[in-house]
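Reopening this one. Same input as before:
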Amino acid sequence: MIRKISQISFAIMVVLMLVSCKNTKQKLQEYVVSYNAAAKSFKGDHVTLTTARGYINDNKIELRFETSLEKNVSNEASANKDFPNLLKQMINKDQIPKQLVEEGVQFDAYYLANDNTVLMKQIINKEEIAGLLK
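Same output, byte for byte:
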């Protein structure tokens, strides 16, 4: 009798655990909502605004970092140095979750000049994350 109760209890616990697990698409949506909510307090050199947009069907998140920089050769050169460091810090602080990357979500990060032209684009996926974290 006790064995039956134990088996039934175990089965119920397993079902509850499976139901409470979130799939990647749900995590992607939650990340975008929480990122945009926290974006107001984001601090970064020259960054005036940051936003996230999720593409559920493509398993992709677009991160946009709008800056106060003008588009010129000098600023593009500094962006090529500073932007990867910013992304590395965000990954280490879990502002860009490694778990989502490991689950196959790709992050397309754009560092934009003050006229919304691209100073630098960085893709973060399973293949690129190791190189970025060096």
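So the earlier flakiness isn't reproducible anymore. For the record, The CA atoms of residues 68 and 75 lie 10 Å apart.
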